[in-house]
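SAMPLE LOG
Freezer: B-3
Tube label: C17
Construct: single chain, 216 aa
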Amino acid sequence: MSKYAVLGSGQVGQVLADGLLAEGHEVMRASREPSKLAEWKEKAGPKAQAGTFEQAARWGEQIVLAVKGSAAEQAVELAGPANLAGKTVIDATNPIADAPPVNGVLRFFTNLDESLMERLQKKAPEAHFVKAFSCVGNPFMIHPKFPGGPPTMFICGSHAGAKAEVTKLLGSLGWEAADMGSIEAARAIEPLCMLWCIPGLSQNKWTHAFKLLQLG
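STRUCTURE (predicted):
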């Protein structure tokens, strides 16, 4: 069992924190105002804590970044790059812009030559970032059940050991992990959020996930 710092007080952070607690891990959720998490902490049980970004990042053995994409770089700064050094940082963020979607297609504030995760890696160069949980809605992040079997979570990062840790975690949470390679692959993975959201934004259909099919 591990000590996970979940940076983010929103819905994604709560879903991932609750899922990690259910698997027996210890969790500290982070917020700019930890008092906002008092009710969650009370309900979550003895293995749950709340703190600031800096406190959680220092405490955690592994980190989950689950904030709004536009706040991700600031969250890394608040956590403190030194507190993230040498640790696996699961990056669940997407660079969704504040501008409204166009015909169901989200707008990003990045381009295809640089992902948000690459920006975050530059903020904390000694952290081991791994993109995960970014291409599905939060209701399906923990033990998703689909007729076709476990869906695929596309991951990437430049540290093999960190990706191995995340792959193991994903397996325990009901996912099949597909390693897409080094950090630059986040340029392709992050836009999967756009694709996942199109049926929801255009047809109000949110009950789907991706599956990678392979021969052999």
